[in-house]
Amino acid sequence: MSVISVRHEHNLSRADARARVDAFEDKMSQYGIHLDWNAEGSRADIKNLFVKGHAELGEGYVLIHLKLGMLARSQVNSEQLEGAIRRRLDAAFSDDGGPVT
Q1: Which single residue of 2, 52, 54, 59 has CA 20 to 30 Å from 68?
Q2: CA angle centred on 17, ends 34 and 49, rounded to 5°
Q3: In this predicted model, what pLDDT tens digit does every residue of 51-66 receive, in sequence order?
Q4: Please, what is the average pLDDT of the chain?
Q5: What strand order describes the sheet that includes 35-37?
Q6: Rounded average pLDDT over 18-34
Q7: Residue 32 burial by CB count (10 A; 0-12/13-18/19+): exposed, middle or buried?
Q8: How far apart are alpha carbons 19 and 71 in whole angstroms?
Q9: If residue 1 lies in a helix (H) or strand (E), which one and from where to where?
Q10: Would you say the pTM of this structure is higher than 0.85?
Q11: Among 97, 53, 101, 56, residue whose Cα is nearest residue 78
């Protein structure tokens, strides 16, 4: 099983970082990826037909950890997906929220 783990460092408050992760989720929802946050808002499960994993919101960082299922591995280049996640996180955490590509 292919694993993708992307950690993004930031200097924002937890509330501001969560707002940025929500913007990231909005962009990723076009691929059927949604975050189901726990009660504390520090961890979210990610699960769909192609991937499963979690997002973690810590002090000064966001971590996206995904395991690609068999169907995704046959159709998705994991390096390209990792790069796309990094770019979208970078854009979401840029000063202006930036355009996400």
Answers
A1: 59
A2: 15
A3: 899 999 999 999 999 9
A4: 85
A5: 3-9, 61-68, 51-58, 43-47, 35-37
A6: 86
A7: exposed
A8: 31
A9: none
A10: no
A11: 53
- Residue ranges of the alpha helices (H) in the chain? 14-28, 70-75, 78-92
CA angle 75, 9, 25 (to 5 degrees): 45
The answer to whether 18 and 57 have CB atoms below 8 angstroms apart is yes
CA distance 83 to 64: 12
- For the domain made up of 3-92, give the CATH fold: TATA-Binding Protein (3.30.310)
C-alpha dihedral sign at 25, 27, 30, 31: negative
**In the block, residue with structure tokens 């770019």:** 87
